[in-house]
Amino acid sequence: MPAKTRRRILLTVLAVLTAMGALTMFTLYQAIQAEAYSRYTGIKNMATEKIAKIIRGTEINANNVFEEVSTHLDTPENVIIALKSKVNMNLDVRGYFAAFTPNYYPEKGTWFEPYIYQPEYGGFDYRQVGSARHNYTKSPWYIQAEESSKSFWSEPYYYYDGTSMSGHYVSFVKPIYDSKGNLACVCGADMKFEWLAKELKWVDESSMNNKFLNRYQMFDAPDFYTVILNRDGACIAHPDSKEINVTDKEMLANLQKKKDGMATIDIDGKSCVVYYGPIEFVDWSVAAIVPRNGILKPLFPLAAMSLLMVAAGMIIVWFVCKR
Length: 323
Known about the structure:
The chain is α+β, with helices and mostly antiparallel strands and 323 residues long. It has helices at 3-70, 76-85, 140-148, 193-208, 249-257, 292-295, 299-322, and strands at residues 95-100, 114-117, 125-128, 152-153, 157-159, 167-177, 183-192, 225-230, 235-237, 261-267, 270-278, 284-291.
């Protein structure tokens, strides 16, 4: 066969194989993206449902405690007894409090805030936390309770008193009114962020070790982790206690509107894909974060195999043409 004809055949075959390889890689890319979306959206949904269930359970148990307080406002001693009566209902709660309006009980002075909490050694203990140093009437959650007249979850805050009680908290808060319709106190159930991180780590480990979920995973499963973000894009719970601040405008808008979404952002200098969605009952969202290179990892060996197949095809065609 003339050399010119061989060249034309080889170029034609090369063009066909290249086009087929490019189409195959594009199809694989789309399939991997779709698989990753399904996988990590499912993981995100599992975390969302688990945390929403705990939050809802906390609300129900806390409302039982608050109802007990509202029916025992006659004396401060009965309030303390009421708080203690149902504290064992939810061990995820670090403590229950009742922050009374100033001088509600004249004998207790300006700040009366009984607090039933779980100390490090287990069980429950009591302390009076209201004071000039801890003027709870200036706290955002107290002011919001006065103005809203309904229950809500507070914004995350940091409490410090030099003891093991210090830490980052979020509280389920509800204003309590007396028989005359006047605000008597603001009750709350405190939860430390430790339980959020614990639940996130459980979801991550369960997903990584789930044989059914990873049954059709090609090569090694990419690293990922789940976090909880507030409406402003700040990370309020991370399995490794790290901080993340979201700056992507579209993602921030979706977090404000409590919408699901997906975004590609830089975290610690790495390009990451974030699959996020809102948690029912609170203004938070769960986000599953995956390094982009991890998602595309299966493409690299497949691309190498495609190139080898193209090279092998060209060599075979060259030998056939030569003969």
